[in-house]
C-alpha cells in the first residue's frame, strides 16, 4: 500500500510531457522536433517558434481596434519596403548578367549567363507584380479622416514612389543594354559584310519583318571568311533573342507604370472625396453651432422679454391699485362731509 502511494506521488511530481494535439497544431516546429527525437519532448526543451509579420489586419480591412490595425499596417509597409530593396538588388544583378553576356567569349559560359538571366528576370517580374498588388491593397483600405489616415497616406505614398523609382531604374537598365546589344549585332554584321548599307544594317539590327536573317544569310554566303562569319551569325541570333527578352521586359514595366498611374489617380480621387466629406462635416458642424448660438440667444431674449412684461404688469397693477385706492379714499371723505 505504501509502495502504491509512493508511486502515485512520483507520477504527480514528474515533469509533464507535451502531447496535446492543439500544441502540435499551433507549433508545428515542436511537432517536427518530437518526430526527429522519436518521442515526446518536455516543455523546457521547446524553442519559441517564429511567425511571419501579422498582415491580416491590413488585408481584411483592419479588423480589431485602431492600435492593432496600425501595427499591422506598419508591419506590412516595412515588408513592402524590404521587397523593394530586394527588387533593386535583382536589378543590379540583372545589369551584371547583361554585362557578362556581352563581354563573354566563352559560348558555354554565355549560355549559363543567359539561363541565370532568364531565371532572375522571371523572379523579378513576379516580385514586381507582388509589390504592386500589396501597395494596391494598402491603398484600398478604408480610413477615417484623422492622424492615422495621414500617416497611412504618407507611408504608402513613400513606398509607391520608391517602387516607381525602382521601375524607372529597371527600365533604364534594359534600354541601355538593348542599345548595347544592337551595337554588338551591328559590329558582327559588318564583320561579315563590311560594305553594308545603313538600310541593311538597320534591317539586321532590328530584324524588321524577318528580313534581317535573309540579308545576313546572303552576306554569309558571299563572305570569304566562312568560320568567322558563322560565329558572327550565331552571336547575332543570340543577341536577337536577348533583345526580344528585353522588349518583353520593357512591355511588362510599361504595364506596371500604367497600373501605378491608375492607382495614383484612384488614390487622389479617394483623398479628394474624404477631404470633401470632411469639409461638409465641418461646415455642417459650424452651422449647427451657429444655430445653437442663435437658439440660446433667442431663449435668453424671450426670458428677458417675459421678465420685462411681468414687471410692466406689476407696475400697471400698482398704479391701478393706487388710483383705485385714491378714488375710494376721496369717495369716503365726500360721504363723511355730506
From TrEMBL:
Protein name in the entry: t-SNARE coiled-coil homology domain-containing protein
Keyword field contains Transmembrane helix: yes
Region described as Disordered: 33-64
Assigned protein family: Belongs to the syntaxin family.
Localization (cell): Membrane
Main localization (coarse): membrane
GO MF entry, a single one: SNARE binding
Ranges annotated as biased composition (Polar residues): 45-54
Signal peptide (from-to): none
Membrane topology: Single-pass type IV membrane protein
GO biological process, one term: vesicle docking
Gene3D superfamilies documented for this protein: 1.20.58.70
Family matches, as InterPro entries: SNARE (IPR010989), Syntaxin (IPR045242), Syntaxin_N (IPR006011), T_SNARE_dom (IPR000727)
Cellular-component GO terms for this entry: endomembrane system; plasma membrane; SNARE complex
High-level lineage: Eukaryota, Fungi, Dikarya, Basidiomycota, Agaricomycotina
Transmembrane region(s): 307-326
Keyword Transmembrane appears in the UniProt entry: yes
The entry's keywords: Coiled coil, Membrane, Transmembrane, Transmembrane helix
Sequence ranges assigned to domain T-SNARE coiled-coil homology in this UniProt record: 233-295
Organism: Hermanssonia centrifuga
